[in-house]
Amino acid sequence: MKLKYLFIALVMAQVSFAQEVRTLKLKPFEKTLISDTLKESSGLTIIKGKLLSFNDSGNPAEIYELNPNNGSIGKTYKTNAVNIDWEAITNDSENIYVGDFGNNLGNRKDLTIYKIPFNPETENLTYTSRINFFYPEQQDFSSKNRNNDFDAEAMILLNGKIHLFTKEWKSKSVSHYIIDPTTETLQPAQKTESYQSDFVVTDATYYQGKLYLIGYTKGANVYLLSCEETAPGVFFNGKIQKYFLGMATRFGQIEGLTATEEGLYISGEQFKFKIINARQRLYFLPFKELN
Q1: Cβ of 198: how many Cβ atoms within 10 Å?
Q2: What is the mean pLDDT of the chain?
């Protein structure tokens, strides 16, 4: 009987730990409204001192330099890429990588990542390669709007590899895939781990041994995960802290995330639903608030 009660206690402790969520309201950390040019900011990255963002599907294939202090657009970089559904951006200090892999319907067979050398002095950017990939686990390509597990809006570059994190509408989980940016032919993304996030992930960033994932639920609750790296490129078997940031109805549909030495820039695109109209905004969440 004692062993039975001990087992139950251990299980309850594990469940309690797994479900621990800290409340950290994002609204007080608002920096600025974002220019109407960038109503659908779907990703953020910092390269050569520039904070960059972009609009997602249905918009020009352009990258915008965003002023973090007043939300204005400093420069518009035109590219020769195609914006079917851009959803993520990262960099390796010299090149930006733009993920055209938005897949709400789950039926795309043309998932790609553009590698684009970044020169802040020019206004025209030309991609040097396309990194084409597919999910080997996917067998069904019928249209299932927001009811599939092969959408993605988040990636980082780490140890010479692209690490992609899925937006799993059906299972409310996130899977971690690795893609080789040097491969020029169509390649299978390699699944390495998964985590039951209970929200859909919309962006990711990495800083000093921690992976940060952000996203929301269908009920518009916004969450942030802080995941400790336990081995090179392994994030989901160690300490994971979950933060509730508030409601998208108040501060926009959170889609962008990138790290600095002091904290996290977070962007929310315009959120319109019936009488709700939350304008696009930029936030800065200091790391000290996450300790």
Answers
A1: 16
A2: 93
User: Which of 118, 99, 152 has the alpha carbon at shortest distance from 47?
Assistant: 118
Where does residue 91 rank: exposed (0-12), middle (13-18), buried (19+ CB within 10 A)? buried
Q: Which one-letter amino acid corresponds to residue 72?
A: S
Other C-beta atoms within 10 Å of 289: how many?
13
Residue 235 has pLDDT above 50, yes or no: yes
Q: 80 near 129, Cβ under 8 Å?
A: no
Per-residue buried b or exposed e for 149-188, using 16+ beta carbons within 10 Å of the residue's own CB: bbbbbbbbbbeebbbbbbbbbeebbbbbbebebeeeeeee
Mean pLDDT is lowest, of 9-13, 16-20, 225-229, 262-266, for 9-13
Give the lowest-confidence range in 188-192, 252-256, 282-286: 252-256
Extents of the domains making up the chain: 29-290
Nearest to 258 by CA among 135, 125, 154: 154
- Fold (topology level) of 29-290: Neuraminidase (2.120.10)
